[in-house]
What we know:
Layout: H1 14-21, E1 26-31, H2 38-51, E2 56-60, H3 61-65, H4 76-95, E3 99-103, H5 109-118, E4 124-130, H6 133-139, H7 144-149, E5 171-174, H8 180-193
Parallel strand pairs: 1-3, 1-4, 2-3, 4-5
Helix pairs in contact: 2-8, 4-5
Amino acid sequence: MAxxxxxxxxxxxKDERQERNKHKSTILWFTGLSGSGKSTLANAVEKKLxxxxxxxxxxxxxxxxxxxxxxxGFSDEDRKENIRRIGEVAKLFVDAGxxxxxxxxxxxxxxRNQVREIVEDGxxxxxxxxxxxxxxxxxxxxxxxxxxxxxxxxxxxxxSSPYEEPENPELVIETDKHTxxxxxxxxxxxxxxxxxx
Length: 197
């Protein structure tokens, strides 16, 4: 733990950034099994926001593990640290006035709740990207389920490591029942109803 550090307030406030952007900033936390469609949906939402002039950014699980979290593995402890770091980065993005879409399996409720607690009320929108394990395995875009079933990937969420479904997410998007377009529309409408947009 670092000592002798003091939080330095910025000259421009989050409220001022939001006023200039003409939208509120928030975290859209996409959580679900591998292959459920988190990254696809997060990027489709960002495209819709971008086309509407909304300032946003996608933090994707694999991309973040190429840099910021490249030294972390997939043990429970490393997964927790992965999500803790992402939560802190997402909070900075919220302070910068962005709508931040995060696409992470984030299998543990406790970790997701800790991120919720570090931002203000209403700034953490948990989106459960719900899809049956069978459908996720059928999709298997990265071939990970096949490797996990063959024992090549230990501690794989949904197979040899648990996924704790959200109990009270702000949104549940069933990607095995809705098209991408329908799913995006549900999220955009939620943001309008909550006056984020």
